Protein 1
Amino acid sequence: MSELRTLGEFIVEKQADFPHASGDLSSLLSSIRRAAKIVNREINKAGLVDIIGAVGTDNVQGEQQQKLDVYANEKFKAALEARDQVCGVASEEEDEAVAFNKELSKNAKYVVLMDPLDGSSNIDVNVSVGTIFSIYHRVSPIGSPATQEDFLQPGNKQVAAGYVIYGSSTMLVYTTGNGVNGFTYDPSIGTFCLSHENLMVPEDGVIYSINEGNYIKFPAGVKKYIKHCQENVPEDNRPYTSRYIGSLVSDFHRNLLKGGIYLYPSTQSYPNGKLRLLYECNPMAFIIEQAGGVASDGVNRILDIKPTELHQRVPFFVGSKNMVRQVEAFLEKYRDE
């Protein structure tokens, strides 16, 4: 039986990968771990307490906020502010970035961008949801409050990124640019334990994940790709299969482990795409590239896109390398249709 390695032990062990960080990044990741445990506890009792349902307000995206959206946002924000390694956060749930005003926070090196509870509308039907986070070095002077420019950095500047999936088991998956590792939460001891070391996505897969209910609104290249999946069988003689949960973290996690592609193209309703570059696409792109996959907006590498606004949206194609490249080829071939 292999020796149990906890997330805390693993973070400390890997601290040598970042000698310049002086333990700050390790402490920051520990604060995310702590907040994830708290949110996990509330999700697991969501049917027993008054924590599900809408709060009656919309977020900046125009989407109805769920009670757990607000709860998760506050818990992660409080955990990050408490550790003094973060000078500010930007959240999908807030109109503007938040600069922490404590003196120690002003001297912090990092900013965090997050989607506190991805797929929260699924909680009342007991479908997996998640948290997505992205960490950058600040670019503003240390000792001053965080600025907008700290958050509007391209994804290739990320120091770390990850997600937590709250499902049949709870897992935290993250990268610091040295591979991708997954940790499963053991509620009996209250600890995340290494369960998926050095994750790599297969170069090919047979799973495609897309909301086909929007088919009529898709670009021609995406329609052609879907038809290709429906009418063809790959060389290994396993037919393509459509799997779509409707929670980015859940669909991404399955495809990371099994091989596949997640597609959220532009549509007539969302000509620039629907997913947020900073809170969803960049962190997932960093993770998938570290696992050997590809993330694209159909033309450009996601991590090379220079953001211009906090809640910028982009088309998103992510997963197994050969599948993403094939979608890009379809989009190029049928671009004018």
Protein 2
Amino acid sequence: MAGTDDAVVDEDALYVLTAVLLTPAQFPSVLGDDFPAACAALGLEPYAEGYGLVLGQDADGARWTVVVDDVSLVAVAIAAWDCGMEHELSPGERTVVAVLPGWPLAVAVAAPGVPAPHDPPPEEGGRPPLTPPGSDTWGPAQRRLGADEIALQWTQWREQLDDGESFASPDTPEEERTPQPEGVRRALKEARSYLDCAPPPGRVRSSFAPGGARMLRVDGPGWSMVARTDDIAFVLLDEEPCEVLPVGRGAELPQLLQDLDGIAMRPA
């Protein structure tokens, strides 16, 4: 594999553009509601240690996703890139688990000196190229991407709510509830059920948030929830296209979030 600054095009090289982790605690949620589902979307076994996904182009410009089992190597590269440092990512051949056509995620950059990114020619009996989900429809993938965006831009989304605004909390009496899709209560009920019956790995994930809080990401069939343990929650539903539904803290939500954080997968 090669970096994107190589001056000479190597016909056998993969010019690495980016990489992501595929582990129980950190995976591209666009692929599924949990880690096993995300692995299945790529035809992989849900190996507990996880994988690294290396996205790049070959000398013809074709898009390829290389799956490797050296998670630490990929994690170090990602950390360096996030800090603005140069770091060459060159997994050894023995670490390669699979080479898949296409990219499962949108990549905004391209390798210099090679043709524009495109899917490789189909192979007889081969799987179709991976493609990122479109933005002109609404479904599970778009719902999960929406939840990703809220987690990344929590402050901006939170500021859109007027402090005096009334919105439902899990313990709000029925007669006092602001009209809200019944799916929100279903999502909260199913999230609470995870405390009694462990969900598949990755359904509940916890990451750092300012002030000692944790950012929770909880998913289930048809719904996604993003919450901070010291604040409110937002719910997205398959049946409510593009709607972001806030859930107030009330008396029950704080404990639910703390309990979910207790069973959540956390990045190493």
